[in-house]
Design brief:
Radius of gyration of chain A: 20 Å
CATH superfamily of one domain in chain A: Tetracycline Repressor, domain 2
CATH class of one domain in chain A: Mainly Alpha
Helix content of chain A: 55-70%
Strand content of chain A: under 5%
Largest interface: A-B, 61 and 61 residues
Order of helices and strands of chain A: HHHHHHHHHH
Oligomer: homodimer
Largest sheet of chain A: none
Distance between the termini of chain A: 65 Å
Chain lengths: 202, 202
DNA sequence: CAACCGATCTATACGTCGTATAGTTTGAAT
DNA sequence: ATTCAAACTATACGACGTATAGATCGGTTG
């Protein structure tokens, strides 16, 4: 809280927030520690003390991102009933999170920019996964699934929404600015789970 | 071919190949132009002339990667019959490509490192997509699908294998070195298309 | 055959970056 | 009041991407 140059209290969080703000307008790769430090009003050497280096700062940002994503996945379900609908909403929320803050989302999974072995990071990134898992587990027909099948569905669903997000953000599915197309494609995709089996039945 | 310092003929391709080799042992982010130039035995300013800059070189590598991926997706189907089996094999091939050369695969979709608007790049990255599309189109029951449904299935499938690849490579699904787990998870996932509808039926 | 010329590559320089290190300041405990 | 660890600054260093001017080559033209 203190505005003194030294010991201003929560520089760490300030730096994380500054990085998050920068991520709204530019990708992780083009963000420099010096730029973050300047925004926070500290010397460019300060971040290293709190985070050990650039990877450390990015890791802290990624951790916050995973917590934020997990929360978003939980919040999208308030007042939503029906197993199918709940799964559908969760998928939409995952994609929405990624699309609304592309750079924030991307840094969360760009392990070569992070201290991927950091315990807090591995713990944090397990949260969205467990929310998805619980969501699937709650679905009515999931009771018939054994642990391995449940995990298969989890991986399949997670992969689907995650892959869609990245493919969309990188322009592989069409113009990333075409929100109408995004709406259509994401719904078609989430709905195609009931279409896909036609293929399996040859 | 000439070993003279000047005009050695195909420096461009030499640089691309050198980059590809580096990608076997380190991620794109940690590769420097100067390092690539040194391997190719040229001055560190040379790459800029051929590719305009780092992004240009990476774009050339990404283009080669997409061609390579498209070829892999085609080659995996020789002698494989049955619509379901062919789709299955294509999915496996996509994942295999990504897992065998993680950095090569990742640079292909890391648009912030590339000249994403480059025509040759956008053309090249459309190839794997069209191979997938044809594969789906060839499946027996796909005849019943209209254009939009077909596209929905394409996006769903592509998203699934692509997302799985990235989640796996970033360690989100388990130890990336556990090949047995990879085998199990990928098969479970690809097979879960017939399990998923249970969820939709509530 | 000789002069030329565009393309290819080198040499050099510049600003920015991440990081390491030594020094300075602060708040709190003794 | 003094001490001390933590927080932050100041400085320096090597590596990087890029721009630019110069050197060198192959091929073409007269």
């Amino acid at each position: 809280m203190a505005k003194n140059q030294y010991h201003h209290g929560d520089l760490a969080e300030t730096l994380v927030k500054a990085t998050r703000d920068l991520l709204r307008s530019k990708p992780p790769t083009s963000i420099s520690l010096r730029e973050v430090a300047k925004i926070a009003g500290v010397s460019h050497g300060a971040p290293a003390h709190h985070f050990g280096g650039k990877a450390g700062l990015f890791t802290a940002v990624a951790i916050a991102g995973h917590h934020s994503l997990a929360t978003a996945l939980e919040d999208c379900l308030v007042g939503v009933s029906g197993a199918e609908k709940r799964l559908f909403e969760t998928g939409k929320a995952y994609i929405q999170f990624a699309v609304e803050q592309p750079a924030y989302f991307s840094i969360m999974f760009q392990t070569e920019l992070l201290n991927a072995e950091d315990g807090a990071y591995t713990t944090a990134r397990a949260k969205p996964k467990s929310v998805l898992r619980q969501c699937i587990k709650d679905s009515a027909s999931a009771e018939r699934l054994d642990e391995r099948q449940l995990n298969g569905v989890l991986v399949a669903l997670w992969s689907q929404v995650h892959g869609f997000a990245q493919l969309w953000l990188t322009g592989n599915l069409g113009d990333p600015n075409d929100t109408a197309l995004l709406q259509q494609l994401s719904l078609d995709m989430l709905g195609s789970l009931s279409v896909a089996p036609h293929i399996n039945c040859e």
